[in-house]
Specification:
By secondary structure, the chain is an alpha/beta fold. The protein is about 35% helix and about 20% strand. It is built from 10 helices and 9 strands. α9 links the parallel β7 and β8.
Length: about 240
Amino acid sequence: MQVPGWLTDAGRVTVLTGAGVSTDSGIPDYRGPQGLWTRDPDAEKLVTLSYYVADPDVRRRAWLMRRDTAPDARPNAAHRALVELERQGRLRALLTQNVDGLHQAAGSSAELVVELHGTVHAVECLSCRERTTMAEALARVDAGEPDPACRVCGGVLKSATVSFGQALDPAVVEAAAEAATDCDVLLAVGTSLTVHPAAGLVDLAARAGARVVVVNAQPTPYDDLADLVVREPIGTSLPRLVAR
C-alpha cells in the first residue's frame, strides 16, 4: 500500500471508527460475513428500542448478551495507532460508533473521543434517567435478577447505548459534525457507513473540502467518493496510514 503524501502531511485528521476496529480485540462486528446479526438476525431485536421496552424476554436476552460479550476485551493495534496519531498532534477528533470504550482504554484522550452511540459501561433508566455502572447491573443479573429494574423509580434499565429507534444526543451529533467539517482528512475505519447520521459525516467532510479515506474489509456506499480506499487488515494498515 502506497500512503499518499497528503495523508502523511495532514495536520488535522478526524477519525470515524466502527465495529471493524474492535474485531481484533475479540468483539464481533454486526454486519460483516461473520457478524452477529448475519449469523443470528433475531439478535437485532436486542438493540431495537421498541422490542426492548415491550418484551421482558428480549430484555433478559440482552442482559445475558452484555454479560457474555467479550468481557476481557483489550485494545489492539488499531486503537494504539490512533493514540499515536494523537501523540503526533494531528488528531482533530475521534468519532466512534463503538460502545466498548477501547479507544479510551488504549490511551486516547476522553476529550477527543465522541461516542456517537453511547457506552456499554453505563446503564440508564428509561424513565427517570438515573445512571449506574454496567458492572453493578450485571452483578444483579448474576445474583438472580434476569431483568433488573431501576432502584430509584422501578423503570426499565438499559445500557447507555443508542438503540435502533432511539435518537442520538443532539450535542453529540453537533460535536461530530463540527469535527467532520473542520479537518484536512476524514479517516473512516472499520465502519460499513450504512448507519446514519454517522455515515453522513463523510458527506459533510467531503463538502467542506476534506480528503476522505475509507478502510474497511467490505465495500461501502462511500467508496466512490473516497480519495483512498484500503481493503487490507485494519490492524496492519492503520498503523502504516497514520505513521509519519
